[in-house]
Design goal:
heterodimer; A: about 475 residues; alpha+beta; Cathepsin B, Chain A; six-stranded mixed sheet; about 25% helix; B: about 425 residues; Ufm1-specific protease 2 (chain A)
Chain lengths: ~475, ~425
């Protein structure tokens, strides 16, 4: 495991690149096979430590040879240049992604550490003259293994780190990762089949920061529990949050999600400051589900379904379940299967409420939920403590249904002394496109006051309970 | 009516990107006569296969930036009578030459080939071009102009490229033909990786549209050293595991170079030509070796299949085109050949009179068989010495006819003397 030091707003250097892994296994004897594999890894070690190893900074003309005294081109940059100056050489896109504020200058500081992406490459040219090629033909019945190791290392730098410091650490990280990959490969070998060792990064609570773990591709999370237990012990982490499940791998901001849903739109909001108040938010990641998505026209009746989808997405994203977010039809079918509804329910446009949400969560995801009932909307103002506790201990999104509407509560801002309260609401009634700017500007995801609720209607809240597993 | 000695032009393509076709210019740096075939009696129609084979051999001897441009014929007949033949020749030749090329064609590749007819009596030239990408293309008129000083403003880009390939051979199919197939596949992948690799010129990464620096002085030859950085193909993330009957590896280095006709060549063009030369030089040598293996294994049917065999690929030798010009052609010398065999081939294929001292063998060292695999069981590694049995183009000179043609042909050499 590589642990990156955490310090306030440094720069993260991330290097990725494939390394070719090719070898011939002559015999099926396990020990001999292991020797060949270790030997192949040794070749890769020497490749990474050789002068041909090159790291290029993406979107720039910067190229660094870490094993040649950290030689840099172009020559305006030297190994003693500060790492954070690399930013000035990177060409950013003129067009910002949808929803960000109008672009400011390139050196805009954000609260999160910025990431510099690097590519691992090999220089194939050398200074000649060298010997002309030799062709070697080997006749031997054997197994030929060929795969690509997806190297992915992360190093966190402080503002005083020079390029030399940072790149020497990067090289150590690459070497270390090769060792980890070798361990994992040998551990999970089945006969002559190799599983690709895949590095993933996990964000642990400060001050631990980003940690890289290598898992074998194809082995499900359920079979890796021992590995995760060791990690929890090593990092002294509580046993009730799945920090190291694959789904919880850290998502770098420059990688768009393939499914097109927005993740955690609430993070761009400014949270309210109340006198002696604190903000209690949903933990982890969820995706925003709302009307009209997935070519499903559920305008006017599907709000609770969408809220349920948002909650399901939370459990998937955190790695508690490995199923996709259920469709309206699947939700309805589940309710029929448990006997809660008649068969005709499937395909209908009937509403559901928090009880149905609880049932489906239980049936499909094996998640239990608590139900909170308020006889009138005005009472919600006094539920600050319960809601705060929920977000502290469970951290899951809450579905709230009442009157004729359903919403999702993602957090509360509550003052114990003054009793002031605000609710962070994710509104499933939005019918537009996944435009973060619109969604936040128009309040589809936003902070609301106690008057948001219908003061006389009664409300049921479904509070999903987080399974205490790793 | 003599349909004799159809010749080939070796030219450099100047990639002039412009709207109007008439601004495109190709520079012919050399015209080479196809050696006469032994058995062809006089009066026979032009032998397409022979000419194409000559073209193939010649194109193997051209470094990057130079390529076989087309065909010319010197004859008594009228131009219109030879046009069809020339057209057939051009297409046949281009098809054979491009079948050896493992890189993917680029959109900005110029695909026009030249057919030139010279009337021996009147000395009149008749020049047409054909677009070889279009089988239905018709002859387009082109201007044939003599120009002095063509060779003085060439730039050269070069590098020494390390090759390290390992390919499995299928079970029970370890003969040279299968080796050829497997190696071609692997070389194609390697060519793609090179193509998408980053190219530095004199240590800097340049934008594609940028011009290579330097080139201020007119008659100073610009040379650039390139560096190429690659990543293994991302597409091969799927792991492969296969039973194999053996493997082939190619390890070593090649000297690759490309000539650019310009004071200020564009980085993009320089990269493309250099990378293509790299692919071509490795492919050519592998082809040559496999051709030898095929003939030698055919003859020794009872050859004991040694467990491990090492073969040296031939190394590259350069020969300047003219004493003053910077352009060189090249040839490949097997480790057991002598330098005079190289000069003989240069004479035969390209009609160049080169002395041994003119040749430059310093760019590559002959392959050395000193490597041993770490931890391998000590086996007897046989080094197979191959006797080159190349198709000889020894033509019997037919005195008078050739002398006439030689005089006529010399008019066409664009000598910068």
């Amino acid at each position: 495991m590589v642990v990156t030091d955490s310090s306030d707003s440094g720069t993260i250097l991330r290097v990725r690149g494939p390394l070719e892994f090719k070898c011939q296994l002559d015999s099926t004897d396990a020990r001999l096979m292991q020797k060949v594999i270790s030997r192949t890894f040794a070749t890769l070690h020497s490749q990474v430590k050789s002068e041909s190893c090159v790291l290029t900074v993406c979107d720039s003309s910067l190229i660094i040879w870490p094993n040649k005294g950290v030689y840099v081109t172009p020559e305006e940059i030297t190994p003693n240049t500060l790492c954070e100056d690399i930013h000035q050489w990177i060409q950013t896109d003129e067009q910002e992604s949808a929803g960000k504020r109008s672009s400011k200058k390139k050196n805009k500081k954000s609260s999160a550490a910025s990431v510099i992406n690097l590519r691992l490459m090999m220089e194939v040219t050398k200074t000649g003259p060298l010997s002309a090629p030799i062709l070697r033909r080997t006749l031997q019945k054997s197994h030929f293994l060929s795969t690509t190791l997806p190297m992915d290392c992360v190093v966190r730098t402080t503002c005083s780190d020079t390029i030399k410091d940072a790149f020497e650490r990067l090289l150590e990280a690459l070497t270390h990762q090769l060792c980890e990959m070798e361990k994992v490969t040998l551990q999970h070998m089945k006969g002559a089949t190799l599983l690709v060792p895949e590095p993933l990064h996990f964000l642990l609570p400060e001050p631990k920061g980003l940690v890289t773990v290598v898992y074998p591709v194809g082995v499900p999370d359920s079979q890796l529990e021992t590995h995760r237990k060791e990690l929890h012990q090593q990092f002294e982490l509580p046993d009730d949050w799945p920090y190291f499940r694959r789904a919880n791998a850290f998502h770098f901001s420059n990688e768009p999600y393939k499914d097109g849903y927005l993740r955690n739109p609430h993070v761009v909001l400014t949270h309210p400051t109340l006198d002696n108040g604190k903000v209690y938010l949903v933990q982890g990641i969820y995706s925003y589900h709302h009307y009209m998505q997935d070519h499903m026209d559920d305008n006017g009746w599907g709000c609770a379904y969408r809220s349920l989808q948002t909650i399901c997405s939370w459990f998937t994203q955190q790695g508690y379940v490995e199923r996709a977010v259920p469709t309206h039809r699947e939700i309805q079918q589940t309710l029929v299967d448990v006997g809660d509804k008649q068969g005709s329910f499937v395909g209908s446009r009937q509403w559901i409420g928090s009880i149905e949400v609880q049932v489906v969560l239980n049936q499909l995801l094996e998640v239990t939920s608590k139900i909170m009932f308020v006889s009138q909307g005005s009472e919600l103002a006094s539920k600050g403590r319960e809601l705060a506790n929920h977000f502290l201990t469970e951290g899951t999104p809450i579905m709230i249904g009442g009157g004729v509407l359903a919403h999702t509560i993602l957090g509360v801002a509550w003052s114990e002394t003054t009793g002031q309260i605000r609710y962070l609401i994710l509104d499933p009634h939005y019918t537009g496109a996944e435009d973060l700017q619109v969604i936040t500007d128009k309040g589809w995801c936003g902070w609301k006051g106690p008057d948001f609720w219908d003061q006389t209607a009664y409300y049921n809240l479904c509070l999903p309970q987080r399974p205490k597993v790793i | 009516m003599l349909w004799r000695d159809v010749c080939l032009n070796c030219v450099n393509r100047k990639q002039v990107q412009s709207q109007a076709c008439y601004l495109d210019r190709d520079f012919v740096v050399m015209a080479t006569r196809t050696p006469p075939r032994e058995e062809t009696p006089a009066g026979n129609p032009v032998d397409k296969e022979w000419v194409s084979e000559h073209a193939r051999q010649v194109s193997r001897m051209l470094p990057g930036g130079l390529s076989v441009l087309g065909v010319f014929i010197i004859t008594d007949t009228e131009a219109k009578d030879t046009l069809t033949t020339l057209r057939q020749l051009v297409f046949a030749m281009e098809s054979l030459v491009s079948s050896e090329q493992l890189w993917s064609p680029a959109e900005d590749d110029v695909s026009d080939c030249v057919a030139l007819h010279v009337n021996r009596k009147t000395r009149k030239t008749f020049c047409r071009t054909f677009d070889v990408k279009d089988p239905k293309s018709t002859a387009k008129p082109a201007d044939w102009r003599y120009q002095a000083g063509v060779c003085s403003s060439w730039s050269m880009v070069s590098c020494c490229l390390h090759v390290d390939l390992l390919v499995p051979l299928p079970d029970n199919k370890t003969d040279p033909e299968n080796m050829d197939k497997c190696l071609k596949e692997e070389l194609r992948g390697w060519a793609q990786r090179l193509e998408s690799g980053v190219c530095l010129m004199d240590g800097r990464k340049l934008a594609e549209d940028a011009e290579l620096p330097g080139g201020q002085k007119r008659n100073v030859r610009q040379t650039y050293t390139a560096q190429i950085l690659v990543t293994p193909s991302e597409q091969r993330l799927a792991d492969e595991e296969q039973r194999c009957g053996g493997s082939v590896s190619i390890r070593g280095a090649v000297h690759s170079r490309a000539y650019l006709h310009s004071n200020k060549p564009k980085a993009r063009l320089a990269q493309k030509l250099l990378k293509r030369d790299a692919v071509a030089t490795v492919t050519t040598r592998v082809q040559m070796l496999l051709e030898e293996l095929l003939t030698s294994e055919d003859e020794n049917k009872s050859s004991s299949k040694q467990k491990r065999e090492l073969f040296c690929l031939p190394h590259r030798v350069f020969c300047p085109l003219k004493a003053s010009g910077p352009l060189c052609v090249c040839d490949y010398q097997f480790s057991d050949e002598s330098v005079c065999e190289v000069t003989e081939r240069l004479k035969e294929m390209l009609d160049i009179d080169a002395a041994e001292e003119d040749l430059d063998s310093s760019q590559e060292a002959p392959g050395e068989i000193t490597e041993r695999e770490v931890g391998a069981e000590p086996t007897v590694e046989t080094v197979v010495a191959l006797e080159p049995k190349r198709n000889s183009f020894i033509g019997v000179a037919m005195a008078t006819a050739v002398a006439l043609l030689a005089t006529a042909a010399s008019m066409l050499y664009l000598n910068d003397v």
